[in-house]
């Protein structure tokens, strides 16, 4: 079969993503650290040293740059920066600024996420996002991120996957342990409005630091697919879990699209994937086309004025050949969406490293393997394959074929 290269646009973001708590290690002042060490929480294993990226971030960036990536999304840890209310660590602010400067020195454009699932213990003790004044407290923290992001950072993400924050809050209030076999728990409505308010306050704070910074947030797209006759059920199910958060980004500079698999919806709600479906280490259906559906749905909701950036997309697998297959299918879908005129500004894989997946190290999403004892980094073949596309900006593609 002949192949013709499909080019990605000039300036297209091409990178990989991480989150502080999942790779840094020893984030002892965070709510998640406390949860990991609470027997009642029944967490499979604690994060402990994670990938020791707090000390080894230069190795991580060196590898990404050598592989050909041009962008790196990482997060700053609020619990490190503000370990007690109103007291900000100059040392930690300087640490994250060094990371920004280190990325720039290696030719990596930094995308900085200000909140990726973890909060300081004291913030949780106040009541978290629904506490009185929570949005102002978050905005105060964002203001103190000015030395980190004021120079050289073009893209800032305020809050990662706010819809999952609301879903987890809803599950906690309902006393649910774990997720249903298909779909998501009902989001907590109060938390939904609270995180939207915090986002709006953070956007204002970032723009006050420098109006040239492109600010947005990222949504966990579940790719809800309606079975015949279930379109209204699907729309009603999707809105509180996804669309309300997409709509909240209408005045942002960009929106992050994050997808991994799909969820089919029938007349009675979500339907589990068939027993014979190929599954990943997270037990999700192997479905690389998901990201294309997620991009198209987000564009349908938000319109063409807000650029879309794939800020997470990937697969948990021990078979790296299937990881390459997944990325190839996913990028076919991204390229097809670009061909159809969607305003897509970048693609960042999840994840740069095999890391702590919120309770366990077993699901390996990483392009780079990390030895749990020595912390030695080893790039997988998928990392070389994906990084090479960053140099050429061209995806080998079947002639005339669309995903």
Q: State the name of the first-level CATH class.
A: Alpha Beta
Largest sheet: 8 strands, parallel, barrel
- Structure annotation, total helices: 14
Give, in spatial order, the strands making up the sheet with the most strands: 2-3-4-5-6-8-11-12
Order of helices and strands: EEHHHEHHEHHHEHHEEHEEEHEHEEEHE
Structural domains: how many: 1
Give structural notes.
- Belongs to the glycosyl hydrolase 1 family.
- This protein has 403 residues and is of the alpha/beta class.
- The protein has one domain: TIM Barrel, CATH 3.20.20.80.
- It contains 14 helices and 15 strands.
- The chain has an eight-stranded parallel barrel with strand order 2-3-4-5-6-8-11-12, surrounded by eight helices.
- The longest helix is centred in the middle third of the chain and has 21 residues, at 189-209.
Observed structural traits:
single chain, 403 residues, alpha/beta, TIM Barrel, 8-stranded parallel β-barrel, 3-stranded mixed sheet, 14 helices, 15 strands, 40% helix, 18% strand, disordered C terminus, Glyco_hydro_1, GH, Family 1 glycosylhydrolase, hydrolase
């Amino acid at each position: 079969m002949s192949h013709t290269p499909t080019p990605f646009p000039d300036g297209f973001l091409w990178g990989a993503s991480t989150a502080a708590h999942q790779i840094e290690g020893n984030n002892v002042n965070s709510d998640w650290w406390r949860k990991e060490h609470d027997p009642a929480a029944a967490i499979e294993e604690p994060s402990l040293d994670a990938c020791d990226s707090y000390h080894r971030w230069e190795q991580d960036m060196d590898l990404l740059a050598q592989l050909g990536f041009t962008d790196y999304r990482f997060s700053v840890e609020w619990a490190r920066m503000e370990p007690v209310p109103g007291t900000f660590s100059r040392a930690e602010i300087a640490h994250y600024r060094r990371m920004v400067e280190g990325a720039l020195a290696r030719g990596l454009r930094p995308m900085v996420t200000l909140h990726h699932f973890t909060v300081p213990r004291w913030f949780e003790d106040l009541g978290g996002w629904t506490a009185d004044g929570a949005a102002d407290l978050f905005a105060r923290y964002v203001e103190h991120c000015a030395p980190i992001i004021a120079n050289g950072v073009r893209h800032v993400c305020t809050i990662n996957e706010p819809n999952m924050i609301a879903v987890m809050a809803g599950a906690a209030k309902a006393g649910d342990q774990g997720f249903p076999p298909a779909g998501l728990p009902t989001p907590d409505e109060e938390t939904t409005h609270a995180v939207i308010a915090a986002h709006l306050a953070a956007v204002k704070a970032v723009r006050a630091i420098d109006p040239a910074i492109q600010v947005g947030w990222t949504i966990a797209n579940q790719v809800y697919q309606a079975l015949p006759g279930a379109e209204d059920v699907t729309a009603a199910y999707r809105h509180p879990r996804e669309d309300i958060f997409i709509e909240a980004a209408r005045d942002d500079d960009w929106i992050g699209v994050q997808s991994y698999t799909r969820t089919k919806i029938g007349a009675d709600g979500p339907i589990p994937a068939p027993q014979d479906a190929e599954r990943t280490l997270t037990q999700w259906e192997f479905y690389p086309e998901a990201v294309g559906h997620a991009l198209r749905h987000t564009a349908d909701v938000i319109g063409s004025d807000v650029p879309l950036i794939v800020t997470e997309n990937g697969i948990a697998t021990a078979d790296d050949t299937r990881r390459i297959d997944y990325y190839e299918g996913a990028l076919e879908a991204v390229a097809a969406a670009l061909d159809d005129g969607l305003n897509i500004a970048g693609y960042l894989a999840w994840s740069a490293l095999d890391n702590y997946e919120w309770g366990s190290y077993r699901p390996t999403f990483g392009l780079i393997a990390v030895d749990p004892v020595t912390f030695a980094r080893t790039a997988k073949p998928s990392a070389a394959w994906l990084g090479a596309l960053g140099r050429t900006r061209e995806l080998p593609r079947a002639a005339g074929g669309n995903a």
